[in-house]
């Protein structure tokens, strides 16, 4: 029996955000007993973006926004961890309530709004941790930074994270920061990634190491938008793409009492649309750069679907909340990497 099945009803009795905070504290408290509490995750090394991942299963950004629980998540056996989204300055995010469970659909709606303690705090947490695996740092812009100045915030994040990150993700696809997805429009995106690429190469010279730069996109893009974004990613030698963020669509949960809540929908309902974006990317990119898949991965079969569609790695978030830590080992054991 999965021990998490005994704990989950208790967690689901309290406010989702409170349950999240309690879970992080519990994970930190039990990390030293990982061998007893959590199933051993087999090594299944895969090399992507010049980095060696001990297995293809990663933690998606959003669960550990501030890097507070790196050692705890590492104890679950993830092949890599991505923390953030982090902004240059601390911010409280959107008003509460802003996180909603939809157990009937194995889904979550969130409108957190990049609540985090700022990149300086996150970097302190990274330095204090013992985690030595592949670390992604997901960067975004502050809510009060005008969209026309968004690039300034991304440059701050890149410069500050560069010395400690294994790779850096530009998050331009959250639906919970006003106008952020505007950065996915071609003219805006071209300016962003061309400037970020130039800065990445400068930082490579300064630090004597190359840190891959990755873009995270939304699942709500049209095939034409995916095609245009793919062309820019190749043109500017971006190192990878994460597909996808949460969706603003409510088509799969129409009729649910929470379907009207604003925010991004994650979990089982977005599995198909996220996989379709992966498939479209794979066709357009033709192996020119790797895809990291996230969205609706609730079991090993879902993860394999993403890998078969063209992804090189997968990440989980909502699946961890509904299935618990055994999901990491289940996926790592059962999937076959392309």
SSE layout:
Layout: H1 4-11, H2 16-30, H3 34-37, E1 46-48, E2 51-53, E3 57-59, H4 70-74, E4 80-86, E5 99-102, E6 107-110, H5 119-128, E7 134-139, H6 150-161, E8 167-171, H7 186-207, E9 213-217, H8 223-235, E10 240-243, E11 264-267, H9 271-285, E12 291-294, H10 300-309, E13 313-316, H11 318-323, H12 326-334
Parallel strand pairs: 3-4, 3-13, 4-7, 7-8, 8-9, 9-10, 10-12, 12-13
Antiparallel strand pairs: 1-2, 5-6, 6-11
Helix pairs in contact: 6-7, 7-8, 8-9, 9-10, 10-12
Tally of domains: 1
Q: What helical percentage do the residues reach? A: 25-40%
Strand residue content: 15-25%
Strand arrangement in the largest pleated sheet: 3-4-7-8-9-10-12-13
Beta strand count: 13
Please give a structural write-up.
With 338 residues, the chain is of the alpha/beta class. The chain has a single domain, classed as TIM Barrel. The chain is built from 12 helices and 13 strands. It has an 8-stranded parallel barrel, surrounded by 5 helices. A 3-stranded antiparallel beta sheet has the order 5-6-11. Helix 6 (150-161) runs parallel beside helix 7, helix 8 (223-235) crosses helix 9 (271-285) and helix 9 runs parallel beside helix 10. The radius of gyration is 18 Å and the shape is globular. The mean pLDDT is 96.
């Amino acid at each position: 029996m999965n021990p998490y099945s005994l704990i989950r009803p208790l967690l689901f009795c309290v406010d989702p955000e409170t349950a999240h905070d309690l879970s992080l504290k519990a994970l930190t408290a039990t990390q030293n007993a990982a061998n007893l509490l959590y199933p051993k995750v087999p090594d299944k090394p895969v090399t992507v973006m010049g980095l060696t991942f001990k297995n293809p299963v990663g933690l998606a950004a959003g669960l550990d926004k501030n890097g507070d629980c790196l050692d705890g998540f590492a104890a679950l056996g993830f092949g890599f961890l991505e923390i953030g989204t982090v902004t240059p300055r601390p911010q409280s995010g959107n008003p509460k309530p802003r996180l909603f469970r939809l157990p009937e659909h194995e889904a979550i709606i969130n409108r957190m709004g990049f609540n985090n303690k700022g990149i300086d705090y996150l970097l302190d947490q990274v330095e204090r941790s013992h985690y030595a695996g592949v670390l992604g740092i997901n960067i975004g812009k502050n809510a009060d930074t005008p969209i026309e100045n968004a690039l300034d915030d991304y440059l701050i994040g890149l410069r500050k994270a560069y010395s400690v990150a294994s790779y850096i993700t530009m998050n331009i696809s959250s639906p919970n920061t006003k106008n952020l997805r505007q950065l996915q429009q071609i003219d805006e995106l071209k300016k962003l990634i061309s400037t970020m690429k130039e800065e990445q190469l400068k930082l490579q010279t300064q630090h004597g190491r190359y840190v891959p730069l990755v873009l995270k996109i939304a699942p709500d893009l049209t095939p034409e938008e995916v095609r245009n974004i793919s062309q820019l990613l190749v043109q500017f030698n971006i190192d990878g793409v994460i597909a996808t963020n949460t969706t603003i669509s409510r088509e799969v949960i129409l009729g649910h009492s929470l379907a009207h809540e604003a925010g991004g929908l994650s979990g089982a309902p977005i599995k198909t649309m996220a996989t379709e974006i992966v498939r479209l990317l794979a066709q357009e990119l033709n192996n020119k750069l790797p895809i990291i898949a996230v969205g609706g991965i609730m079991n090993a079969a879902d993860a394999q679907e993403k890998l078969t569609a063209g992804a090189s790695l997968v990440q989980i978030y909502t699946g961890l909340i509904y299935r618990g830590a055994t999901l990491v080992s289940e996926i790592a054991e059962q999937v076959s990497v392309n």
